[in-house]
Specification:
The chain is an alpha+beta fold. It has a single domain, classed as Alpha-Beta Plaits. Helix content is about 25%, strand content about 40%. It has a five-stranded mixed beta sheet with strand order 4-1-3-2-5. Strand 2 and strand 3 form a beta hairpin.
Length: about 90
């Protein structure tokens, strides 16, 4: 797994109550990524993902628009290996 990287993203906008987390899980699992998505109290969604950089870039592309009902206004990304991301990718509460 030495060639794997990890990021933490905060997705802002209308991203809660629009199936953002479950859609993110679907995308991440298709890419075989580890990690999670969870709602934060401020209305944003936190996404932690680990895998090959190429696949992480695909997930980031998705996070910038999300599912059809979402309205993403910003995505803040921190790259690094803060802690091991859980596998399989899932929703955290």
């Amino acid at each position: 797994m030495a060639d794997h990287e990890q990021f933490r993203a905060l997705v802002r906008g209308r991203v809660q109550g629009v199936c953002f987390r479950s859609s993110t899980v679907d995308e991440a699992r298709l890419l075989d990524l580890a990690g999670y998505a969870r709602n934060l109290d401020d209305g944003s969604v936190e996404v932690v993902a680990r895998g090959p950089r190429e696949d992480l870039a695909r997930l980031l592309d998705f996070l910038h628009h999300g599912p059809s009902l979402a309205r993403v206004t910003g995505v803040e990304i921190e790259w690094g290996n803060q802690s091991a991301a859980p596998s399989p990718f899932d929703i955290r509460f």
